[in-house]
Specification:
It is built from 8 helices and 12 strands. The relative contact order is 0.15. The strands form 2 sheets. A 7-stranded mixed beta sheet has the order 8-7-11-10-6-12-9. Strands 1-2-3-5-4 form a 5-stranded antiparallel beta sheet. It is α/β, with parallel strands linked by helices. The protein folds into 2 domains: about 130 residues, no CATH class; about 110 residues, no CATH class. The longest helix has 24 residues. The protein is elongated, with a radius of gyration of 22 Å.
Length: about 280
């Protein structure tokens, strides 16, 4: 019996080792915190923790009960954080009504969240950490329906040669100091209110796979990130659009650069966009 208990605690100890790369937040990452739970907008996942408290039962049964309680608590906390995910300037996931069945589908999806860490504390309690992607199934459910699958993009009108310097591989928007909020469907507009980037520019395939935009805190890191490849157009955000904290205004001149070559539509279609915020 004693050997069996030792084996159980050895297994528990191995399970308690963290999955590195998920629980450590790097300085350049933009994270929206909710207590000890958070949305990592840079790497595109939601993380939540739950606690299980030991009882006076036999060790083996107590462990199972505590594990179940910690998992249930983490699952509830994960749901609460998912509800805080912004779709656009006016909508969060919590705003979806029960009638459209989205929330029930999300709740079913949560049960497939990955257990990335289990940690025991000196008082005998167990903390379970769950992780869920912002992309894939969740994005498919909540992204606006106007984001459609875009096939090949063909130039219209007269095709003229553009200098290599005007052909870009991605877009980096410096929106630091504007109090911008991260969202799954942001917009970038020129000074006249015309969209330079938004739902109409992207293919749903890429928006579901990696989100319409990446978010980072470090400007230099954003400029060299693989998402925007080796030659991104870098623009400065002037302000947010009206009272919409997810939508950014850039200058007419920068918007013109973005529109200057049909080749630039290819990287917009593929969501090769990073917004730098604080």
């Amino acid at each position: 019996m004693r050997c069996r208990l030792i084996l159980i605690w050895i297994i528990v100890g191995l399970l308690s080792l963290p999955v590195y790369g998920y629980c450590v937040i790097e300085e350049y990452e933009y994270v929206e915190q909710f207590g000890c739970n958070y949305i990592n907008w840079t790497r595109g996942f939601i993380q939540a923790k739950g606690i299980g408290i030991p009882t006076e039962k036999k060790a083996e049964k107590d462990h199972k009960d505590m594990m179940a309680a910690a998992y249930a608590d983490a699952l509830q906390n994960l749901l609460e954080v998912v509800k805080e995910v912004r779709i656009d300037f006016k909508t969060k996931i919590r705003d979806f009504s029960a009638e459209n069945d989205i929330m029930s589908k999300i709740e079913s999806m949560l049960k497939r969240a990955q257990v990335v860490e289990q940690q025991y504390f000196s008082d005998g309690s167990l903390e379970v950490t769950l992780l869920m992607s912002l992309y894939g199934g969740l994005a498919q459910l909540v992204l606006p329906q106007e984001i459609q699958q875009v096939e090949s993009i063909k130039p219209v009108g007269v095709v003229t040669e553009k200098p290599v310097s005007e052909i870009y591989t991605g877009l980096v928007v410096d929106a630091r100091g504007l109090n911008v909020k991260a969202a799954m469907s942001p917009k970038i507009l020129d000074e006249n209110g015309r969209e330079a980037y938004g739902a109409a520019f992207v293919s749903r395939e890429f928006a579901v796979q990696q989100g319409m935009s990446g978010y980072m805190k470090d400007f230099s890191a954003a400029q060299t990130d693989p998402r925007v490849l080796n030659s991104p157009l870098t623009v400065k955000g002037l302000r947010i659009q009206d009272a919409r904290p997810t939508d950014i205004v850039i200058s007419n001149a920068d918007a013109s650069k973005l529109r200057s070559a049909s080749e630039n539509l290819f990287f917009l279609k593929k969501c090769r966009v990073i917004i730098v915020i604080e």
